[in-house]
Design brief:
alpha+beta; Elongation Factor Tu (Ef-tu), domain 3; 60s Ribosomal Protein L30, Chain: A; 6-stranded antiparallel β-barrel; 5-stranded mixed β-sheet; 4 helices
Length: 262
């Protein structure tokens, strides 16, 4: 098989110089496109999100098997079954929110590539890229704080606004995950009684559909904010908001009534 030669189309401009310093989810960054490729950006600003394909030049290339970076206590996986930066060809694919274009620069909300990372391609995020409830490996983060931050990122990507009931949904889903594991379990039934924001965020986090299989139901309410999670042979978890607003600073029992029945 012939070797492949790739030429960068640009590079990442970031405040982070080392992969060890890169926080999960990335930092505000930009992509600077080489002058000869600037015309390829025509009308890219019509897109809110883009796929960035970059070359993780600081990554190890000899590993074929490793434990997930988010939790080294988990079993090993082949690198093709992970998003690990260490792989034979360290091509990274990152979904980034495009804030604006400034000439040959794309200003991004966040990107998880260090300063100077070569960019090998850019593609727009299309509606056809969406798989609402895919089957995936369950790879929980190493601790509760990490899992909450990851869940908050997913909630914001889905709901698009960090409102009070989004925060409530994140904390409820975090409790449910600690009881039932993977929230995208096709046998986990989820119901919501409460606001549109609570229901929308819970559905986004659980990936529960109304049909095929029917996992999600919703009853609008202003008087009650409650979620119910049911898994056969495991039990039923009911979480009811007690009304506090400083949700992200409190312990679960300080703002939730937690009722679990086997």
């Amino acid at each position: 098989m012939e070797n492949i030669c790739l030429n960068p189309v640009g590079h990442v401009v970031s405040s982070v110089e080392s992969t060890r310093e890169m926080p999960a989810g990335g930092v505000p960054a930009a992509i600077e496109i080489l002058p000869q490729y600037e015309s390829a950006l025509l009308r890219i600003e019509e897109n809110s999100h883009i796929w960035v394909l970059s070359w993780f030049h600081q990554s190890e290339r000899s590993k074929l098997v490793t434990s997930p970076g988010v939790n080294h206590d988990l079993p090993e996986y082949g690198v093709f079954a992970l998003r690990s930066a260490s792989r034979p060809n360290p091509i990274a694919i990152s979904l980034a929110k495009l804030l604006r274009r400034e000439g040959n620069r794309l200003i991004l909300e966040k990107l998880d590539a260090v300063n100077g990372t070569p960019v090998i391609d850019i593609k727009p995020y299309f509606e056809n890229d969406i798989i609402f409830s895919p089957k995936t490996s369950y790879i929980p983060g190493k601790n509760r704080e990490y899992r909450q931050n990851q869940m908050l990122r997913r909630a914001l990507a889905h709901h698009q606004e960090e409102c009070l009931h989004l925060q409530l949904a994140v904390r409820m889903a975090l409790v449910a995950e600690e009881v039932f594991g993977h929230l995208n379990n096709p046998d986990l039934i989820v119901s919501v009684r409460g606001s549109d924001c609570l229901a929308d965020t819970i559905q986004g986090l659980s990936r529960a559909r109304l049909a095929n299989p029917p996992r999600f139901s919703y009853v609008p309410s202003t008087a009650l904010q409650q979620t119910n999670w049911d898994l056969a042979d495991k039990g039923t978890l009911t979480l009811t908001w007690l009304g506090q607003t400083d949700i992200m600073e409190l312990e679960d029992e300080e703002f939730l009534n937690i009722d679990f029945e086997n």
